[in-house]
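Entry type: protein chain
Record version: 2
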Amino acid sequence: MAAVDLSSVTNVPYFYTKASVGTSWQEFKLPSWVSKVIVQASDDFYVGAIGAETPSDGASPGTHKFPVSGGAAYSVVINDADDRRWFEGLTHASSIFVAAQTGTTTVTIAIEKGRE
């Protein structure tokens, strides 16, 4: 499986759908300007990011992941609307990882910039 590289997209908002995401991590590389990422999938799924563990594309999800029910959305703010990191000295996500809890699922990613 190959990472989905969204790091060079320039359209805002930007939506990307990937079918047949399995139980291994699917990496979505994010643009540096992203303020917020929303992840939704058709079936129960996990979301992960580099933190307590270091997920990688195609690897099995470990202990540190966030479970989300199918049809629900997971949202995370990465930068504020003025391109400032929330707190200096912290490492902010440059990728988000998604895996189906069982079988496969269709994943939609929304990349946003700006104030809510």
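Comment: The longest strand covers residues 14-21.
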